[in-house]
Design goal:
The protein is of the alpha/beta class. It is about 15% helix and about 30% strand. Strand 23 and strand 24 form a beta hairpin.
């Protein structure tokens, strides 16, 4: 059986046994159906770039036909890139701003799930490599953020992720190998799930690495690098992130 690792982009595009049309369809649509490919191409070509109220209206009516699930009152900005769109599930009152990429690629994954009230800022990338991304109710992702998963990334309710953050689950490479060059390694192996709790504030430019976690009601200072578990009700800063304060349930912060 063909696995996702066999669809590594460079190898797939270099497979002479596949036609260019099939390569494109596998990479972009995730289907061999000519009808699905034609429908995707027509909708993206004619409405993805349209400005103003007309563009918003047409995308709200046409995108649900190429996306796995779309709730009510969803706003799609301009120039949104969709990969394997049938594995994208969107709840009610979701806003996806301009120039965002939602890439749910994989053969055995569930893809990307955006629950009710999620906001995705412009220029963000949500990218699966046979992994899953779950954004729970009212999660807010600031502009120019990247969320990558070859395992599972979950961000829980009412969490705010500021601009320019990088959240990574997977991407482990064997840098000690003398036989296999980096570019020839499959990569994407993961230590474990990455989970950010509810009601957290992730400051601008934060990096959260594979296998790390952040507990509920925590604050991560701008520019921090989270490499391990941060407990509930914590304030953490620095590289690597270290806890400097504990937040009591009353809202009082203690050193």
């Amino acid at each position: 059986m063909e696995t996702y690792r066999d669809l590594k982009v460079q190898k797939s595009l270099g497979d002479e046994k596949k036609s260019n049309l099939r390569k494109y369809s596998e990479l972009i649509v995730g289907s061999h159906s000519i009808w699905e490919l034609i429908k995707y191409e027509l909708i993206i070509t004619f409405v993805s770039w349209l400005p103003g109220a007309l563009g918003l209206f047409l995308r709200s009516k046409l995108y649900p036909s190429i996306i796995g699930k779309v709730g009510r009152r969803v706003i799609f900005g301009r120039n949104i890139t969709l990969r394997h769109p049938k594995k994208i599930k969107i709840g009610d009152n979701v806003i996806i701003d301009d120039n965002t990429m939602l890439d749910a690629k994989g053969f055995s994954n569930n893809g990307i799930t955006l629950e009710d009230g999620v906001f995705i800022g412009r220029n963000c990338i949500l990218y699966c490599k046979n992994g899953n991304i779950y954004l729970k109710r009212n999660v807010n992702i600031g502009h120019n953020c990247t969320v990558f998963s070859s395992n599972n990334v979950t961000i829980h309710e009412n969490t705010l992720v500021s601009a320019y953050c990088y959240i990574l689950s997977g991407g482990e490479y064997d840098y000690t190998s003398e036989e296999i060059k980096m570019i020839d390694q499959e990569g994407g192996d993961s230590i474990g799930d990455l989970e950010i709790g509810s009601n957290c504030w992730i400051g601008a430019g934060v990096i959260v690495t594979d296998g790390a976690s952040i507990g509920d009601n925590s604050v991560i200072g701008a520019g921090a690098v989270v490499t391990k578990s941060i407990p509930t009700n914590s304030v953490a800063v620095g590289i690597p992130a270290k806890i400097i304060k504990t937040i009591e349930k009353t809202g009082v912060v203690k050193s």
